Every structure is written in structure tokens, then in C-alpha cells.
Amino acid sequence: MPDRLAGAEWLFFDLGGTLFDATAAVRGRAEAFVPHLAQLGIKVSAAQMVTAVYETATRFAPAPMVDAMVALSVGQLDTGQVRDAAPYDHALEKVRDGAREVVARLAKSYRLGVLANQKPGGAERLQQRGLASYFELCLCSAELGMAKPDPAIFERALQQASCPPEKAVMIGDRIDNDIRPARAAGWQTMRLRAGYFAGQQPRDEADRADVTVTSLRELLALL
Q1: Which of 54, 80, 112, 137 is the most exposed place for a label (fewest CB within 10 A)?
Q2: 113 φ, ψ to 5°?
Q3: Averaged over 55-79, what is the pLDDT?
Q4: pLDDT > 70 in the chain, percent
Q5: How confident is the model at residue 2 (pLDDT cuts 50, 70, 90)?
Q6: Which CATH entry fits the domain spanning 10-22+93-221: 2.130.10.120, 3.40.50.1000, 3.10.180.10, 3.90.110.10?
Q7: Contacts of 169 (CB under 8 A, 6+ apart)
């Protein structure tokens, strides 16, 4: 594993779990879902539900929060019903510790973008949290009509940035959505091992990020 990434020009950050800490949002969704399970005669605490989300994420489920809740309903609710019963509240997300300092400093040396699977309003959420001015591009799945890990979204990012893949870096918390597809597209990769996806373990060499950190501040010594 290199100590630093070579020749990078563009840094693309994931949002939820990377720039934004989703801990409170996941907890809030769990708490909102507990009464719905109780109506089905299923007694599960919010803490147990949060643990289930972490375990589901570790097993590389595509949508860990929803998949965990469907599993806990013991087949009585489907994905759509879960989403309706316990929508994800982006207002509960917080800027991850160190994120403002890190992006402010990195923006002096690199061009920054966001590449994220997000509901509509990703750019507005960046603005509300005081981060938008540091990013030249904000590419979110809802507006693009494509989502990670689809190779097309990585290609779109390169096109809009006018950047060759070897000079682009994907910085994210998910092996399955961030690291593996970016590597396959020829990007450099940095994994933030934190939050609900920290338990993911590389399944093969294609899952291994070029650099792994446990806090955003560590990026400053590597870039």
C-alpha cells in the first residue's frame, strides 16, 4: 500500500458516511421503525435494530438499513413498506469530524467533487452545512439517474471533470459502492473505515483500497 497517492488532480468524496456522519440519522430511522414492528407483534429495540444495520452492512447488503428492517419484520413488510414507514431523515446527518478543515485545505491543492448515492437535494445539503464552496462538482444519483456501483456514474464524473481515471481519487466508506467500482474504472482509491461500513472486509484484491484511513484528518498527511 502506498504512503501517498501519486499524480492526483481530482478528489471525489462520498457524502453519507464519509463527509456526513450518518449515526444519528440511522438511529432516528430505527427509532421510527420500532412502533411499526410492535404493531406486527415483533419486539425489537432501536439499539438491536442499529446493530442489525451494522451487521447487514458488513455482509455487503446493497441497502443495509432497509434490508435489515425487512429482515427484522420476518417477511411481513417489503422494501417499499419499510421506506414508507421509516424514511431516512437527512436533517439528522452531521458533518463528520474534521471534514470542514480537511476539504478547506485540500481545495487549495486539488479540485474537489462529490460522487454519491443520494436522494434529491445533495447539493443543497452541502450548502446548508457550509461545504458547497469547496466543491466544483456535486454528482448525485437522484439527479443523474444512475447510482454507484454502476460504472457509468464513474465515467460521467470523469467526463464532467475532464479528468483521466488515473488522476481521479474516490474517497468513500463503502468497499462495494466506492472502492471496488472505482478501482475497476482505473481510479485511485481511499477508504474511510468508519461508521456502519467499517466492518466490511476485502473479499479479494479488487476490494482493497490504495489507502485506508480511520479519520478524514489522516488524508492531509497523504495528499
Answers
A1: 80
A2: -140, 165
A3: 93
A4: 98
A5: low
A6: 3.40.50.1000
A7: 5, 8, 10, 11, 12, 187, 188, 189, 190, 223
Q: Parse the chain into domains and list their residue ranges.
A: 10-22+93-221, 23-91
Beta strand pairing call for 20-21 and 94-95? antiparallel
Between CA 142 and CA 116 the distance in angstroms is 9
* Band of residue 5 on the pLDDT scale cut at 50, 70, 90: confident
**Average pLDDT over the chain, rounded to whole?**
95
Would you state the cell numbers that stand for residue 45, as one nine-digit string? 429495540
Confidence of residue 1 (pLDDT cuts 50, 70, 90): very low
What are 142's three cell numbers?
437522484
Phi, psi of 140 (to 5 degrees): -120, 145
- What integer is the mean pLDDT of 58-77? 93
